[in-house]
């Protein structure tokens, strides 16, 4: 039986790309080496038959792999630990029959040596040991001088520092007719990544409408690159920079978007275009014949292209891009929007566009284009769109913390989009709020005349709070307008006659009536100010530590015995969630006889303890020391003022007019009436009841965060 070949996977390594170490996920298998770019998701494969040389080398702070292929290409992976050396060496020897040797580099720091070309790599050796290596695929240009050659490099947009150019001084050769500078340049340009239009184009598409970059361009397809020729700018796109191809139908079902994802993006000054978006309208068929033989089509493109292609223009271009770039064309899957197309009309960053839910991600066109893969998404969220109920926002949060908000989506798309997200098993932030059974959906169907469902929900919550406040509220005992001696009663009785007189004068319309009416208003305001006295706050009484505590209910007795078990079953659960889980378990419990029996025994013990407590004198009202309080002066009627129509003195005047010469000890004590004695006794009993309620509340304060199910 043949032994299974082990597969090695590394998630925290990187590959050198245009002077920058880019994080990738590396997989070593029997078929070869494959690596996936963490940022772009691009997957590259290196067949085992193409590998020629494997080296283990020391990098800055880590170790790396140096792999040469048959065509002279160099691949360098970094981020390995020293302990991985023996494992990798054994894998390459058993799987690929290749020995992994250790590569040494010169660290002398000399700037003179010998330049050697090994395939597509320029090696600068110092004393037969290489000091550095330059992959010629990173070179974008090569210029010459009298005795020097200048190499220009491609720039990486994600790199903080880029190597712009490198100069080599080349001494003159003693051989006649041999120019070492020109020879050096020719060898560099033979392997450099410099796009030159040689030969005829395979296909040309005239005046194609391009949304990004904006304008109309002639698209020329060459075997190694694609050229966009416009009136002002020209762009050359190497086929190796194409990541993905998308063919998306427009919302009007008459046009089509063809989106090309690029890495690195094409540049226009300081502007970068990571996506090429073409717009096609109409379904007029056309025919394209390629200037290639059947053998060339089979050898170079492995049957991806045909000699003669016919169909609408968007199909012709998509097939040509697919055959040249060797990339699959991504189309919308099973999702169907409210309009009958896979497109969802929305806005992104204040620009209108279309969102397309795909099988493995989301793409938005067109300004700016956004492509989000499912493995990048951390969570999604359905949110309200401003103050209207006719639309909603769809928020997509990626793992690096960026939130992409697609706003102004019609409410008709809500159920379809929610089912799509749920089917793809994406994490929904507000799932719990949307699935609450007691409340309706915020995005339910509603006409313009119906109330806002969100406001209706807020009002319901406010009403619940008001009902709770009404249950706890008590009536104002100080407000008694009908009783004798009440401030309110005095206010109304004092001006009963004046109100009648002023009413008569006002009807006549005389000046005296208006004057009396004004004076009456001022007096009412003054008396009202006097009558509004702040209520005195009764000091809280001390607790009686000897008084027995109220017994627990059957639920809390059960909860105290099962709380630790619930915590073990649900690690990391909060106190609030413990009460929810416990409530569900208690309601599902069929036999509660044991706990009800314990609760009954605890209640009987509490009643017996209360009898003994009261029998020993506990709970009796404490004797109160009578406090001295100023007494109101008796209201006296002056015969002179009464006869002249002066009337009674107001309460304010009486209190201010009371004599301070007479001390409190000389004043006679006023005997309380039966009514006052009765009120005092009732007040003391109510204070005792409130004291018992305060103590009961303290006894249950330990379970304040745990509410007994069904207590409402």
What radius of gyration results from the CA coordinates? 45 Å
Mean pLDDT: 77
Q: Estimate the strand proportion.
A: 25-35%
- The proportion of residues forming helix, as a percent range, comes to 25-40%
Compile the SSE list and pairings.
Layout: E1 8-17, E2 20-28, E3 32-37, E4 43-47, E5 51-58, E6 63-69, E7 74-80, H1 85-95, E8 100-103, E9 114-118, E10 121-126, E11 129-135, E12 139-144, E13 148-153, E14 165-169, H2 180-191, E15 203-212, E16 215-221, E17 225-229, E18 234-238, E19 242-249, E20 255-268, E21 271-281, E22 285-289, H3 294-301, E23 308-312, H4 313-325, E24 329-330, E25 344-348, E26 351-357, E27 361-365, E28 370-373, E29 377-385, E30 388-398, E31 403-410, H5 414-423, H6 431-434, H7 453-472, H8 487-494, H9 496-508, H10 511-531, H11 554-569, H12 575-588, H13 593-615, H14 639-643, H15 651-657, H16 674-699
Parallel strand pairs: 5-8, 19-24
Antiparallel strand pairs: 1-2, 1-7, 2-3, 3-4, 5-6, 6-7, 9-10, 10-11, 12-13, 13-14, 15-16, 15-21, 16-17, 17-18, 19-20, 20-21, 22-23, 25-26, 26-27, 27-28, 29-30, 30-31
């Amino acid at each position: 039986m043949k032994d299974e070949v082990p597969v090695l996977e590394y998630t925290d390594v990187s590959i050198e790309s245009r002077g920058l170490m880019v994080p990738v996920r590396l997989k070593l298998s029997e078929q070869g080496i494959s690596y996936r770019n963490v940022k772009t998701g691009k997957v590259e494969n290196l067949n085992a038959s193409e590998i020629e040389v494997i080296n283990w080398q020391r990098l800055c702070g880590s170790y790396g792999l140096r792999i040469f292929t048959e065509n002279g290409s160099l691949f360098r992976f970094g981020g390995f630990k020293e302990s991985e050396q023996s494992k990798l060496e054994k894998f390459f020897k058993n799987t690929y029959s290749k020995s992994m040797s250790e590569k040494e580099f010169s660290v002398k720091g000399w700037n003179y040596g010998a330049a050697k070309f090994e395939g597509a790599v320029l090696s600068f050796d110092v004393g037969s040991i290489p000091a550095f290596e330059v992959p010629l695929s990173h070179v974008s240009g090569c210029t010459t001088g009298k005795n020097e050659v200048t190499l220009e490099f491609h720039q990486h947009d994600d790199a903080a520092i880029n190597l712009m150019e490198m100069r080599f001084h080349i001494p003159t050769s003693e051989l006649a007719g041999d120019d070492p500078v020109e020879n050096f340049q020719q060898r560099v340009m033979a392997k450099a990544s410099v796009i030159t239009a040689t030969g005829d184009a395979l296909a040309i598409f005239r005046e194609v409408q391009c949304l990004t970059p904006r304008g109309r361009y002639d698209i020329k397809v060459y075997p190694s690159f694609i050229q966009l020729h416009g009136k002002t700018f020209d762009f050359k796109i190497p086929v190796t920079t194409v990541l993905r191809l998308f063919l998306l139908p427009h919302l009007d079902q008459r046009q089509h978007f063809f989106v090309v994802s690029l890495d690195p993006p094409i540049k226009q000054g300081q502007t970068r275009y990571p996506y090429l978006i073409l717009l096609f309208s109409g379904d007029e068929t056309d025919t394209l014949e390629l200037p290639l033989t059947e053998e060339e089509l089979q050898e170079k493109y492995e049957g991806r292209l045909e000699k003669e292609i016919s169909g609408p223009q968007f199909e012709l271009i998509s097939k040509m891009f697919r055959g040249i770039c060797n990339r699959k064309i991504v189309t919308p899957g099973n999702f169907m929007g409210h309009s009958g197309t896979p497109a969802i009309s929305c806005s992104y960053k204040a620009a209108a566009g279309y969102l397309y839910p795909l099988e493995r991600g989301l793409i938005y066109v067109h300004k700016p284009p956004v492509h989000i893969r499912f493995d990048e998404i951390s969570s999604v969220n359905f949110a309200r769109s401003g103050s209207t109920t006719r639309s909603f926002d769809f928020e997509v949060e990626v793992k690096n913390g960026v939130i992409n908000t697609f706003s102004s989506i019609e409410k008709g798309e809500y159920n379809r989009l929610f089912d799509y997200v749920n089917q793809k098993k994406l994490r929904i932030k507000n799932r719990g709020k949307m699935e609450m059974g007691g409340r309706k959906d915020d995005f339910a169907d509603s006409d313009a005349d119906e109330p806002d469902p969100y406001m209706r929900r807020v009002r319901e919550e406010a009403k619940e709070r008001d009902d709770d406040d009404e249950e706890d509220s008590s009536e104002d005992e100080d407000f008694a307008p009908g009783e004798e001696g009440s401030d309110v009663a005095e206010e109304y009785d004092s001006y009963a006659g004046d109100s009648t007189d002023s009413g008569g004068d006002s009807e006549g319309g005389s000046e005296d009536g208006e004057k009396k009416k004004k004076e009456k208003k001022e007096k009412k305001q003054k008396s009202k100010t006097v009558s509004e006295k702040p209520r005195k706050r009764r000091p809280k009484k001390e607790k009686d530590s000897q008084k027995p505590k109220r017994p627990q209910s059957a639920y809390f007795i059960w909860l105290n015995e099962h709380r630790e078990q619930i915590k073990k079953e649900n690690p990391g659960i909060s106190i609030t969630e413990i009460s929810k889980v416990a409530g569900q378990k208690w309601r599902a419990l069929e036999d509660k006889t044991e706990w009800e029996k314990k609760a009954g025994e605890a209640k009987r013990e509490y009643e017996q303890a209360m009898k003994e407590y009261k029998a020993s004198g506990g709970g009796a009202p404490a004797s109160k020391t009578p406090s001295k309080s100023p007494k109101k002066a008796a209201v006296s009627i002056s015969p002179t003022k009464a006869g002249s129509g002066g009337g009674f003195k107001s309460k304010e005047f009486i209190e201010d007019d009371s004599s301070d010469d007479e001390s409190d000890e000389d004043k006679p004590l006023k005997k309380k009436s039966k009514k006052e004695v009765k009120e005092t006794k009732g007040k003391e009993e109510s204070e005792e009841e409130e004291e018992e309620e305060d103590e009961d509340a303290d006894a249950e304060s330990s379970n304040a965060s745990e509410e007994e199910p069904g207590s409402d």
